[in-house]
Amino acid sequence: VQLQASGGGVVQAGGFLRLSCAATGSVFNTEDLGWHRQAPGKQREMVAFILRDVTTKYADFARGRFTIARDIGENTIYLQMKSLQVEDTGIYYCYLQRNGITYWGQGTEVTVSS
C-alpha cells in the first residue's frame, strides 16, 4: 500500500483548502481511512477518520469546519477544510488501516497566515 498526499499550501485565515490522498494497492470499502496532523512543536493528533461502514468521526477542532470523504473509484481520500485558522497550520498525514496495520502517507504541509 502506498499513499500520496497533496493539496497543502499557504492560505489566509478564513480560507479553504482541499487535501487529497491517493492510494495504490488498497480496496477502500474494506479499510478505515483518515487524517492526522502535526503542528510545529506539538504531537501528532487525529483530525478525522472514516470507517469502512462510512461512519465518520472528527476531532473537536475539526467538527463543523472539516469534511472527510472517500472516492472508492479513484481510491482517494479527501479532507475539505474551511474557515481555516492559524492554529490549523501543520503537516497533514493521511493513513489507511487494514488488518491491524496502519499505512501512512508522506504528509502535506498547510500554512495558515493571519
Write the SSE topology:
Layout: E1 2-6, E2 9-12, E3 17-24, E4 32-38, E5 44-50, E6 56-58, E7 66-71, E8 76-81, E9 90-98, E10 101-104, E11 108-113
Parallel strand pairs: 2-11
Antiparallel strand pairs: 1-3, 3-8, 4-5, 4-9, 5-6, 7-8, 9-10, 9-11
The major beta sheet can be summarized as: 7 strands, mixed
The rounded distance between the terminal residues' Cα atoms is: 37 Å
Helix/strand order: EEEEEEEEEEE
**Mean pLDDT across every amino acid position:** 94
The total strand number stands at 11
Total of DSSP H or I helical runs spanning 4+ residues: 0
Helix content: under 10%
Q: Give the overall silhouette.
A: globular
Rg (CA only): 13 Å
- Strand fraction band? over 45%
Structural class: mainly beta
Spans with pLDDT under 50 lasting ≥5 residues? none
